[in-house]
Amino acid sequence: MALRLPIRTSLLLLGLLMTGLAQVPVPASAPRGFWALPENLTVVEGAAAELWCGVSAPGSTVQWAKDGLLLGPDPRIPSFPRYRLQGDPTKGEFHLHIEACDLSDDAGYECQVSRSETGPELVSPRVILSILVPPKVLQLTPEAGSTVTWVAGQEYLVSCVSGDAKPAPDITFLLSGQTISDISANVNEGSQEKLFTTEATARVTPQSSDNGQLLVCEGSSPALDTPIKASITMNVLFPPGPPVIEWPGLDEGHARAGQNLELLCMARGGNPLATLQWLKNGQPVSTAWGTEHTQAVARSMLVMIVRPEDHGARLSCEAYNSVSTDIQERGVTLQVTFPPSAITILGSASQSENKNVTLSCITKSSRPRVLLRWWLGWRQLLSTEETVIDGLHGGYISMSNLTFLARREDNGLTLTCEAFSEAFTKETFKKSLALNVKYPAQKLWIEGPPEGQRLRAGTRVRLVCLAIGGNPDPSLTWYKDSRTVTEPRPPQEPRRVQLGNLEKSGSTFSRELVLISGPSDNQAKFTCKAGQLSASTQLVVQFPPTNVTILANASALRPGDALNLTCVSVSSNPPVNLSWDKEGERLEGVAATPRSAPFKGSAAARSVLLRMSSRDHGHRVTCRAHSTELRETVSAFYRLNVLYPPEFLGEQVLMVTAVEQGEALLPVSVSANPAPEAFNWTFRGYRLSPAGGPRHRILSGGALQLWNVTRADDGLYQLHCQNSEGTAEALVRLDVHYAPIIRALQDPTEVNIGGSVDIVCTVDANPILPEMFNWERLGEEEEDQSLDDMEKISKGSTGRLRIHHAKLTQAGAYQCIVDNGVAPPARGLVRLVVRFAPHVEHPSPLTKVAAAGDSTSSATLHCRARGVPNIVFTWTKNGVPLDLQDPRYTEHTYHQSGVHSSLLTIANVSAAQDYALFTCTATNPLGSDHTDIQLVSISRPDPPLGLKVVSMTPYSVGLEWKPGFDGGLPQSFQVRYEALGTPGFLYMNVLPPQATTFTLTGLQPSTRYRVWLLASNALGDSGIADKGSQISVTTPGLDQPSGEPDYQLPTEQPAGISEKTEAGSEEDRVRNEYEESQWTGDRDTRSSMVSTTDVEPYYHSMRDFSPQLLPTLEEVSYPRGVTGLKEENMAFPGHVYDELERLYAPSGAWGPLYDEVPMGSCDLYWPEDRYEDARGIYDQVAGDLDPMEPDALPFELRGQLV
């Protein structure tokens, strides 16, 4: 045992490091069989624990029991992941190690050794593993981390509850760092067994010193290294301190009126800080205050201007806050010193010399009272009486009376009443008056032009009146002929008289009179007076006639009347001569007896006799009064007012031109006196309203204004003018120009081919111009628009386009354009329909259609023709008329313009019955035409046609061809070529399979090649015997330019294959076949084959068979119509030949009469390539086909080969 003690000691230290708690080694008295025993152990939750067990018999089976539950001998203890056996079993070390202990590990443990060959069954003493659980949180009420607002001196309850812990924690409260002793605590069971919570309540009475401090709850436990804490911040409310008023100066309450008084009130402390307000005699005067939280002080400044009425007023400052029980107040009473606000002198300081002057001096209220004294200049005068009475605001009023003798030498001296007091030593209060001693002037005279001097009217004359001495200043007054001279200034009259102010220079006084001399100043007497003194002068003024007046013996004059005019010159100095003239023509007059003249001047008169006419109206007759001495003439005129009926002047407009929808003004040039009373306009017997209307008004001068003029307004307008003297009439023509409107245009215009016809265009227009008709042909190509072979005829409102020997190329849309200079030009669309006999489209000698003859397929035969008028189709089979009542045959006919189509559908095609020659005949009133279509079995394709070179480079050749008959199956193409002189052939497949152009690459420069083109389908290829499917070509050298032949044709894109996914009605099937057809222009090579079997619904379209046309009305209405039609050269022109609307078109089909119609452009073109032979009625028989496997072709494509 002694040897093992150091080892046990090391293990003990290791346990201390791991668990923080000591395990004591097994004493010497350990039970037999154990060399180390477990002991009671305490650990904190989350830490590791180790219970020792050392067994003396190493080979024994050892396991631990937890509260009687065996944990098993497995060192890993699988049922408890955190448990394991620690140590070396060979040494008998079976220590129980527990990681991250939790409350579930708090239990009793035993180390048990099972019976073995080397020893008996052993059980260690039971030990207790205690797990300490620290409290995680403290729940504080009020809520931790918050700020609570409390009132100082009041008691509050604070509770603190700990979280689950083991053992129950201790709770302590700290207020501002001091422990609170008044605490009650309870320990309660926790949320789990063996856990406890502690709830503690403290009674808190905060004080003002606790404001802003923390109230802390601390929880301590053996499981904690440091206590956990939760706290709240205390906001303690308490009242402020008393307010303090800072008075400026030493004498509190004493102030002077007018002083700017600033009083500061402060209150310290308080939460919240104090609210301050100033009161004056109990009434608020200021509620503004400020706070400084750092110094915990509130301040309020009262600023006021002290007034006398503030004497005795009480100023107080109040301080309080939300928790104040009483308002705290500090006050002061004002003692105001104020001087008298005014001094008044009663009585007049103006008096005649050597008479007594009596005055009184009175002050306003003052505090304290003031004394009064009198001064005359610098000499003090003694008052005769002084009195003091009570005044306002606690002040006093002082009064003083004075009487003294006025002397001339005292005139102008200052008389002053002065108030003074010891309280106002730095201020003087005075009231002064100027002493005015009155005495008269001594001398008076006038300075001006000498008497008798002649003055011209308008001359500026200056008269000055002067006087010496006198007080008050003598009032110098001017008189004209005993009337006072004033200075009237009416706003409209010039300033003729300027009366100066009284001027003083020393003891001399003067007043100036400046006047612009006029007739009224002639011989006038001007006098200046000053009191009892006066002086006078007289003016002599020369002036032209003051007024020239013309008197007439009659006022109402008419042509032929005699008029006597008398001219009177009222007054002039010297006399004047009178003369007459009329509009510059001198008249002889007769002198008349003059009247008496004003302004002491001379008068004159002269008469003239005139005979009146209408031309004299408005003329002026002028009388001129001329003064030779003054060299001045005064004139007056008399305007003749001759009454006469209206007379139209020579410039009266009789023709007015206007544009339709524009404005027109019919002017009036008329002379009359009096002015016409009314202007009456009449149009076509109807009088136009003088008050105006929606489209006209009569202007003040009689002119007629029209707007939105229409052609119906064209015509003569009669004007009737009338005044009190008579009437007059005039006719004014309004010519309304308007844009052309096509009134007649026969659309369509029809003509038989080779005939003649006129396209007639009739318009309504004004003006009608000889060259206003023009014609255009609408077409896409420039050559289509030529009208060189047509004749244009124009006569009046009708224009004609004459066509001789009508041709199909002339059919189409024409436009009649009429322009007479008034916008917009008129345009009318007309279609020329050239009627011709039917022409069936059959570019190849024999058209073939392939179909399987097993009575399960259908075939559709397409027949299209051109002709006007409409065409009727009939069908025959092998020359026998076809019975369309047979349900196996269905015909659909379509008409669009001049293109007509018939689709014959044969159901359940049988080789025996339907492999035949079908003939389609097209008929109209002008003739008929037919074509043959052979219904055959499916076969190998025909060789391609027209193989040619379209481009060439040293290394490539561009090829183009036209597909042959495809045998009723999809066909593809293959190019075979060889270089001459080089053995072997090369092959290249054309992609996409339906392409009709291909570029052969990989060639050598300057080499001759022979090229073949093969067509193939599922039944075989076309062979190479046909000359049209081979060509020889030599590539250019590298030094030769590459290019394309100038006869290159447009490249055709191959038609696609459409797949029919569901079976429809027979009508839908036929319609779809027709819609998906496409015309190649100069070939008819493909067939249509439709299988109705359910084995493989596969549909081969007729795209390459059908002629390319604009879609018919029936076709475009289908939802699955043709979407990719293309224009190609056709055997007939592509113009639209619409039938007459009344015969062929439904109502409303064409819309507006002159709408533009779509036109096509196709040249007359027949291909040069032909089949060399028809190859018989039937295609190759089965024996001609290439050997192939019996099942290489699907059954529905095999057919019944003949």
Automatic annotation (TrEMBL):
Cross-referenced Gene3D superfamilies, in alphabetical order?
Immunoglobulins (2.60.40.10)
User: Signal peptide location in the record?
Assistant: 1-22
Q: Does the keyword Disulfide bond apply?
A: yes
Give the domain of life.
Answer: Eukaryota
InterPro entries on file:
CD80_C2-set, Cell_adhesion_signaling, FN3_dom, FN3_sf, Ig-like_dom, Ig-like_dom_sf, Ig-like_fold, Ig_sub
In what residue span(s) does the Fibronectin type-III domain sit? 943-1038
Instruction: Please state every residue range assigned to the domain named Ig-like.
Output: 25-124, 135-233, 242-333, 340-434, 440-540, 544-635, 740-821, 838-939
Task: Provide the protein's localization.
Answer: Membrane
Keyword Amino-acid biosynthesis recorded: no
Q: How does it sit in the membrane?
A: Single-pass type I membrane protein
Region called Disordered, residue ranges: 1024-1090
What biological-process terms (Gene Ontology) are attached? cell-cell adhesion; muscle organ development
Q: List the Gene Ontology MF annotations in alphabetical order.
A: cell adhesion molecule binding
Name of the protein: NPHS1 adhesion molecule, nephrin
Taxonomic lineage is:
Eukaryota, Metazoa, Chordata, Craniata, Vertebrata
Gene name, Swiss-Prot/TrEMBL: NPHS1
